[in-house]
Structure prediction request, 201 residues.
Amino acid sequence: MKKLVGLLAFAAALAGAILLTQYYTKRYATPPPPPPPPPASAPAPPATGSGVTTERQSASTYTDARGNAPVTFKTQLATLDLAAEKGRLTLALERDPARPAAPGVWVWAYFFSPDAPGRYCAGDPVEVRQPFASGAGRAEVKVELPVKGCPAPRSPSPTYYARVNVSAESAFAARLTEQRISYDVSQASPVVVEGAKPASR
Prediction:
C-alpha cells in the first residue's frame, strides 16, 4: 500500500513538474522574429511609348508587347492651326532593322499654353501604316491630327507647346492617361501657331 501511495505521489509530482515547465516555457519564450519586410515593388512601367514625352534633344523609345523592334521617335516640327483645329507633326522614326518592323504606329499629341495653366487640347490618335515599308531603319512621317478645345490665345503671338506619344500597339495605348499629362515645358516641343485670334476682352 505504501508503494502504491508513493507511486501515486511520484506520478502527481512528475505531472505537476511537466505542467509547470510547459507553462513557463510558453510565458517566457522569446517572441518570434518579425516577418521580413515585403520586397520593394518594381517601379511602375512607363506609359506606352517609352519616354512618353518628347524632349527637345533626346529621343523616345517604344517596344510593343509582341516584341516588335523598338521605335525611337523625335519631334522635328509641331504646328497648331487654331482656326482649322488641326495639329501637324513631323516625326523622325527609327528602328532596329535586324528585328521585324511594326506594321504601323499610332501617334497622339496634346497642345498646351503657359497662358492657360492646367488646360490642353487634343484629338484622337492617328494611325501611320507601314512607316518602314522600304525596309530602312529610319523614316520621316508627317501626321495631321484633329485638335479640339484649345484655350483661346491671349495675344497675337501666343506660345504653345506639344507633347507627343507614339505606340506600335494600339490607339488606346498611344493616348496618355490624365495622370500622365504634364505641363512641363522643358519636356515639350515648341509649337508654330497658325490662325491665332486673341480672345476679345
Notes: The chain has a mean pLDDT of 77. The two ends are 118 Å apart (CA to CA).
